[in-house]
């Protein structure tokens, strides 16, 4: 008898339709969101980039845009998002949202209240990338079409994923951003998107002489949830060395063979350690960075070198690489301590792990203590490969 009841119950569950099923024709799939504020009213402006499935269908006109952009205002983020339905014939869903762009005004004011809906909502996901729109309204970022991707949001996400090839910026997803805001001993850094202009070339078949581009060139620095400035590309490289992010990318410097020429090494891998020490109530840190590289290009020319000469040249290059990396790291720390006064590296977090009892007394004063913290930088860089060419080349005269 019990078995019969269980089978009937399973049949009821399996044969009924999904209670919250939504037809594709009834929903608007949001792939990117921008947050701004109205200057006069202070209301929140939510701009949604929504996919147009018909434009992506096989045989659809190439002139038809694959996305539509809609904006609406409200007293809260979710109210503004819902008000989009006043101008859109679909109900927005956020399961596939890839990117959130926030304006400088909101970032300087403090973003935590604006992010609440994205961390609380069932539809949003923690892997949404978060960026700051530098010098322009965030909705303008969603309005620039550039790149190979059909859907502009995917193009912007590709820029973020390409950070590994240059490590001149650093972008967080909402989950990591939120954790760092709510945690102690570390402040978040995330990507900044800018609009730039470049010449239009005849092959592009565009009537305009210039075209607008999006550039992920800098990184936004926060103190808790408030924007306090931007890392320069060099400072961002130093920041990335400290957190052990570079796994790819290029470093270029003057050639030993010809000072007017350059040589480049490709980063194969890197790692870092932040080692804290406490003495007399003062914190100091040792930052140890290891980098493995390959010689990728040399413009300087010479007659073929024997193995001994080549090894000597590689050792000199390794020492110079270490100097460059150390300089970039020190530049980043100097900026964090003097310009931003924000511990973006997690120095405080490393203290809390090694000295938990002492950290309880220090954490309320860490914003004051961090700018005065002393540090030492140790770098070990090795060149493992010279790729397909063993020695630099020079044409016979």
Automatic annotation (TrEMBL):
Location of the Spore germination GerAC-like C-terminal domain: 219-386
**Subcellular location field:** Membrane
- How the protein sits in the membrane? Lipid-anchor
- Which residue intervals define the domain Spore germination protein N-terminal in the entry? 20-194
Q: Which Gene3D superfamilies match?
A: Nutrient germinant receptor protein C, domain 1, Nutrient germinant receptor protein C, domain 3
Question: Which species?
Answer: Paenibacillus oleatilyticus
- Coarsely, its chief localization is membrane
**Under what name is this protein listed?**
Ger(X)C family spore germination protein
Translocase among the record's keywords? no
Q: Which ranges form a coiled coil?
A: none
Family stated for the protein in its record: Belongs to the GerABKC lipoprotein family.
Keywords carried by this UniProt record: Germination, Lipoprotein, Membrane, Palmitate, Signal
**One matching Pfam family:** Spore_GerAC_N
């Amino acid at each position: 008898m019990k078995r019969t009841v269980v089978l009937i119950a399973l049949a009821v569950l399996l044969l009924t339709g999904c209670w919250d099923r939504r037809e594709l024709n009834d929903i608007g799939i949001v792939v990117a969101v921008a947050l701004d504020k109205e200057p006069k009213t202070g209301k929140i402006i939510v701009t949604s980039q929504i996919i147009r499935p018909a434009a992506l269908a096989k045989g659809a006109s190439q002139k038809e845009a694959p996305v539509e952009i809609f904006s609406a205002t409200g007293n809260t983020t979710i109210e503004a998002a819902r008000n989009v339905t006043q101008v859109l014939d679909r109900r927005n869903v956020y399961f596939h949202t890839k990117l959130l762009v926030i304006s400088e005004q909101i970032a300087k004011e403090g973003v935590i209240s604006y992010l609440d809906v994205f961390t609380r909502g069932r539809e949003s996901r923690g892997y949404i990338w978060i960026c700051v729109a530098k010098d322009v309204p965030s909705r303008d970022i969603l309005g620039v079409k550039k790149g190979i991707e059909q859907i502009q949001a995917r193009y912007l996400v590709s820029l973020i994923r390409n950070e590994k090839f240059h490590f001149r910026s650093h972008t967080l997803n909402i989950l990591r951003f939120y954790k760092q805001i709510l945690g102690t001993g570390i402040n978040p850094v995330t990507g900044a998107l800018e609009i730039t202009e470049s010449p239009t070339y005849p092959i592009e078949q565009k009537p305009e002489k210039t075209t607008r581009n999006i550039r992920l060139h800098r990184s936004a620095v926060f103190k808790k949830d408030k924007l306090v400035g931007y890392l320069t590309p060099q400072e961002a490289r130093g920041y990335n060395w400290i957190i052990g992010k570079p796994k790819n990318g290029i470093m270029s410097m003057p050639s030993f063979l010809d000072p007017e020429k350059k040589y480049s090494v490709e980063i194969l891998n890197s790692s870092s350690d932040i080692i804290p020490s406490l003495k007399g109530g003062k914190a100091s840190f040792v930052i140890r960075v290891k980098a493995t590289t390959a010689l990728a290009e040399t413009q300087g020319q010479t007659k073929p070198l024997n193995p001994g000469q080549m090894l000597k040249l590689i050792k000199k290059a390794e020492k110079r690489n270490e100097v460059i990396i150390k300089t970039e790291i020190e530049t980043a720390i100097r900026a964090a301590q003097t310009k931003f006064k924000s511990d973006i590296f997690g120095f405080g977090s490393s203290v809390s792990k090694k000295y938990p009892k002492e950290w309880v007394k220090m954490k309320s004063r860490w914003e004051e203590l961090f700018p005065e913290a002393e540090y030492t930088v140790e770098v070990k860089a090795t060149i493992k490969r010279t790729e397909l060419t063993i020695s630099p080349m020079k044409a016979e005269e």
